[in-house]
Amino acid sequence: MPKEKRSPEQYSIDPAAQEMLIRAEEIGIGTAFTRADNMVPCNIGGAGMCCKLCGMGPCRLTKDGQTGVCGATLDTIQARNLIRAIAAGSAAHSDHGRDMAFTLKAVANGEAEGYIIRDVAKLRVVAARYGIPVDGRAPEEIANDLADLYIAQFGQQKGEIAPIIRAPEKRQKLWKELKVVPRGIDREVVEALHRTHMGDDQDPEHILQHAVRTSLADGWGGSMIATDVADILFGTPAPLLGQANLGVLKQDMVNVVVHGHEPTLSEMIVAASQTPEIIEYARAAGAKGVNLAGICCTANEILMRQGIPAAGNFLQQELAILTGAVEAMVVDVQCIMQALVGLAENFHTKVITTSPKVKIKGATHIEFDERHALTIAKQILRVAIDNYQNRGATHIPDVRESLIPGFSHEYINYMLGGSYRASFRPLNDAIVAGRIRGVAAIVGCNNPRSTHDYLHTKVTRELLRQDVLVVQTGCGAIASAKLGLLLGEAGLDQVGLGLREVCETIGIPPVLHMGSCVDNTRILTVLTQMVEEGGLGDDIDQIPAVGLAPEWMSEKALAIGTYCVASGAYVMFGGSSPVSGMPDKVEDSDIVARYLSEGWEKIYGGKLEFVADPDEMIRRALAHIDHKRAALGLAEYKPERFGRSGDDRMRQLEQLPLVERQQALYGSPVK
Ligand code: SF4
Ligand code: MSK
Hints:
- The chain is an alpha/beta fold.
- The protein is 49% helix and 10% strand.
- Strands 6-5-4-7-8-9 form a 6-stranded parallel beta sheet.
- α5 packs antiparallel against α7 (139-155) and α6 runs antiparallel to α10.
- The protein starts with 7 loop residues before the first helix and ends in a 5-residue tail after the last helix.
- Bound molecules: iron/sulfur cluster and Broken Fe4S4 cluster.
- Iron/sulfur cluster binds at residues 51-54, 56-59, 68-70, 72, 77, 198.
- Residues 261, 296-297, 314, 335, 444-445, 474-475, 516-517, 554, 556 line the site of Broken Fe4S4 cluster.
């Protein structure tokens, strides 16, 4: 039986999304929201209780003590399903990292049209970290060596992947003892698939140990490489002004929406859109120029480096086309819905696939090749511009919000201490004093099974009120951007007084946008630097911090969650659990869920839990933060102690008559 259809307000809390969903209904077009209404999820598969690894199945284990045809038990099946998802997520991130490393190699050797090394300082810092000589060498020479080192991480067969040295020392020691340091990125992913082939690894804890190793190959391997190289080639992000939501599309310009994950092509499209020849070509077509906007993590990549606006997050990809104002949606890899092509047939939008790895039937394919990047970017833009004349009726919601993205760990370090004494000391001190209760990373996707952006914003707002500093990436960051939480002054009326003091003193928004999904590695680096700064213990698991993915949907999210747990973090996912089992019907069907929580906490100090109720998620997050504060011997969190300094106090003083103000400021009236 199809579920009851939801209202626009139940679909999304975003007014722009609601407006477009009403339009979709008016013109009789389905979206992921309505398809989710019509698709009843399989409760057996959803709970991790179905195995389809071989032709003797699929085996659905729905009775106490039941096993698969081969005898596989439910906990084994759940662990195998989970590690396969983690392997796929790690593969996606890491293959992105591999492509970035190959691009770096091509740039270093002058084989990539249009690219330069933009952040030589970061190149030198990263290369030196691995012992690559930097003094007296040209950036291209250093980049060539770094590219070789990074490319080698994927196919390495023995030893340890190099970026692991960037974790806290104590954590590295633990991983070595537990034998979970990845040997090579590809090797761990392949082994995860091998172990889960019919008749292989059938001890759930042993399978999940390799799930950790595989995820570490992502977080401290492929993803970290992707972030490093993107910064080196396109610039390390620093705060700038941007905009978010569908209202960034322009009526009088050629709108090109870039969607997916890899910044290599999108950066070049940004560059191409600003060339006189493309601007002139657009004008000749009757438009004022080319207006670029992003969706999903491509949006985050070009937003935080170039200030290119974000049209929205994952669930807005179809809604952008529904405006009728998008001449081309240019996609690369990951999070691209096949439905885009059928939807675009109702409008004039051209869906252009560009990756050699991704084609969609019915889409235009213009394959990207870094050797001719600028030429291909211009070709794509010309296709979009030629399509402008085919535009029909449009409906662009007049909804957009400003934001300040670009808080790389390098910038956070700088903003806390300036050029000459950059440090994490002020952040650690604020946590020690209790002005900041703790830190939450609220990351990940949207999922049409819950109200779009609702869970993200609910937990973000409540944790801010509780003086928890929030860092965000991915679609969660865009959700907060659309709410105005990524703006300095605008967001501060929604945060606790202690956190507000810190934000006002440093001049930061209460929510720091740290980038795309692969940039969750920036959060690992921040946590490591907080450990190294001192005062918050000697490993990540001691920091009063949590990681939350309230609206997760992708396998990449599971990989991210797992490497964060293995790094010592308490991670909670909202929505449904892929290992929930049905403990009310099938005895012990939640063994794996319990192991990911209690079992992993004993081993790694971090734990993975799936918590559907956002209030419970908030409660557990705060309890965990307070527990970690107490374990460190820090002052108990008391919000009433703060809020009497900084801008807020000055504002209150300004309300007083002159003499009383002077009395308050100087102890007596000024003569
Ligand atoms: Fe069934 Fe075992 Fe085959 Fe899985 S591997 S489908 S449990 S027989
Ligand atoms: S794009 S993985 S929906 S965050 Fe990175 Fe958003 Fe999740 Fe895709």
